[in-house]
Amino acid sequence: MKSNAEHSADLTIVGAGAAGIEAAKIAQENGARVILLEGNDRPHGRINTDSHFVEHGAEFLHGVQSKTWEHVKEYGLTTISDGDVKNSYVYMEGKVQKNNQCEILIAKIREKAREHLSTKGETSADRIIKQVLHNLDIPEELKSTIRGAIESEYGARLRNLGLPGLQEPSSFEEENFRLEEGYSALLQRMSEGLDIRLHQNVQRIDWGNDVELTTGTGETFRSKGVISTIPAGILKQQPDLFMKPLPPEKIEAFGRIGVGEVWKIIATFRKRIWKEDMAVLRTPLLTQVWWPAHWGRSKPAPILTALIGANGVKKFGQSEDEASRIAFEELKLMFGASKVENALENIDVIPWTLDPHIRTGYSYLPPHANGIRKTLAEPVDGKLFFAGEATDPEAGTVHGAFNSGERAALEFLRSS
């Protein structure tokens, strides 16, 4: 990374996450001079692998055909397959037990949503989920577990999630993989040779013949075009970032896109207290889903990761201490108080919605919002280009961010 005083480029990219790095890589390979401005003290956005190869942000490669695989092969990285449904557990009837009904019934819910969309049109995911679950003779605990699983997957309260949103990519219907070297290793390789300026929080973007960006340090950067990868959660809170009015339809799209409330909790133990074949544990509790962070590794450390969305996050009251307390109590409830108290070493809380540089887990589509991702992606005046997972049909995924970065870079190159 460079720290020189140059402030001019062909292209300025706001945000050095997956979308920004992908865009910079493509633009630079095609001869453009590129500067990436990152407000945080580290690059890579919502990708952050710690020293124990635990993912604090994005974790999975979804499916086997995504753009992420191109980069995995390019840099010779190694993937680890996640467990399948036979490795699924639930907490029900006071015990942790092997049960794959959640995956089966969520697939049924998604199929019912597809049918409703094609025959009756749009409604909320909540309505379809209630219809499916109402007719099933299953314990109420399992129904709550299914609802919690969907909330954690999309980061949305179910009444706020539309049927097209329920059809967007998820871990429910595709094989998932992790990177043995960690996701950060991939982004570090991709970042080599890029000019990334940290601590550069963009506060205004103006454009005429050129684009001018002013950052919180008082510095001004000029370029022929700009790609904004600013997360939807930030844009909702900074409507005055752009010094000229954006098209009304784009302003409306930014207002309507759902901002997913997602936190992660990492529980580190001195020894494993769960079944060795447990790949995922779904619960009716506030900590909606857990999984072993090192599943599939030859020497796995005893670490559990929880993914909590929407109502679960709301109950934390924006308090990391409260989230840690609840996680501790719920782990004791599921695995036994004495086992947890004797084995638990530490609980870390990763509150993505509280991070001032992120403010969201990932985006989702509310009811009657189909098509707004395309509107979010549309360039403005041949100067402003937009990327990030919220602008791509494969939203909520790293490969969706990569796709959007490639698209925006090519749009810039064609316009310049």
Task: Summarize the helices and strands and which ones pair or pack.
Layout: E1 8-14, H1 18-29, E2 34-37, E3 61-62, H2 67-74, E4 79-81, E5 88-92, E6 95-98, H3 101-119, H4 125-134, H5 140-154, H6 163-166, E7 176-179, H7 183-191, E8 196-197, E9 202-207, E10 211-215, E11 220-228, H8 232-237, H9 248-256, E12 258-259, E13 262-269, E14 280-282, E15 289-292, E16 303-309, H10 311-315, H11 320-335, H12 337-343, E17 344-351, E18 363-364, H13 372-377, E19 384-386, H14 398-415
Helix pairs in contact: 1-14, 3-4, 3-5, 11-12
Short description:
With about 425 residues, the protein is α/β, with parallel strands linked by helices. It has two domains: about 10-80 and about 180-255 and about 365-415, FAD/NAD(P)-binding domain (3-Layer(bba) Sandwich), CATH 3.50.50.60; about 85-175 and about 260-355, Polyamine Oxidase, Chain A, domain 2 (Alpha-Beta Complex). About 35% of the residues lie in helices and about 20% in strands.
Summarize this structure as a short list of keywords or feature phrases.
globular, single chain, 416 residues, Polyamine Oxidase, Chain A, domain 2, 7-stranded mixed beta sheet, FAD/NAD(P)-binding domain, disordered N terminus, alpha/beta
Can you give a write-up of this model?
It is a single chain. The protein has 416 residues and is of the alpha/beta class. The protein folds into two domains: 201 residues, 3-Layer(bba) Sandwich (FAD/NAD(P)-binding domain); 186 residues, Polyamine Oxidase, Chain A, domain 2 (Alpha-Beta Complex), CATH 3.90.660. It is 35% helix and 21% strand. It contains 14 helices and 19 strands. The strands form four sheets. Strands 1, 2, 8, 9, 10, 11 and 19 form a seven-stranded mixed beta sheet that branches. Strand 5 and strand 6 form a beta hairpin. It is globular, with a radius of gyration of 22 Å. The N terminus is likely disordered.
